[in-house]
Amino acid sequence: MKRRNKIIIAASLVAAIGVAGVTIGTTTALFSRTQNANVHIQAGSLNVGFYLTELKYDTVVDGEIVEKTVDLQNTEPYKSAFIAGKGADLGKLTNPIATIEKIFPTMGGQYTFMVYNSSDIAVNANIVTTKSCFWSDGSPMGSPENEKFVVTPTWTESKKISPSAYETGTISFVLDESAGSENPSYESTSYHIDSVLTATQITKQSN
Q1: How far, in Å, are 3, 42, 73, 130, 170 from residue 151 at the CA level?
Q2: Distance (Å, whole) CA 30 – CA 13
Q3: Which of 51, 103, 110, 142 is deepest in the core (most CB within 10 A)?
Q4: What predicted TM-score, i.e. pTM, was given to this entire model?
């Protein structure tokens, strides 16, 4: 991440749930995302988990932007949902996966997630990542300001996950330097990033 001296700003992140719906064969079992939903989707033999495995972001230390990696195992709210070997269970957290406040141009970060298929059948998994950007009064940011907060996913298409296997993906985010360091209003904005998992059971077709 780029570093910039002699600025006084702060960045903070919190993590949350990103959950899915499931389709089985020709019938559909839809698990709508709610604040209290469990990210583990179970319908018959289908069981898919969604975990946060790494979270890092830019923050300010002694007037300099530095990159911080969150200790998920020992930092709330992640540690209460932490599972050894998997990460923080997103089904036990609330709010967007990442929220950055008082961001400055060139500041950003990334989080890595794992989708684990503990089912006895293969699934197709999709991840959709969204962003929401707000001014200090809570009103949504419009274009072009909203577009200057750039979110880049590595998981952009459906992936087949075999039984007892997993896939990982990374979401990167940054406030583009074109936002302009001379514009202090960006330092009072809030940026929210969220990812939603959709898993579809792969069934054998009879002849």
Answers
A1: 19, 30, 26, 8, 10
A2: 30
A3: 103
A4: 0.73
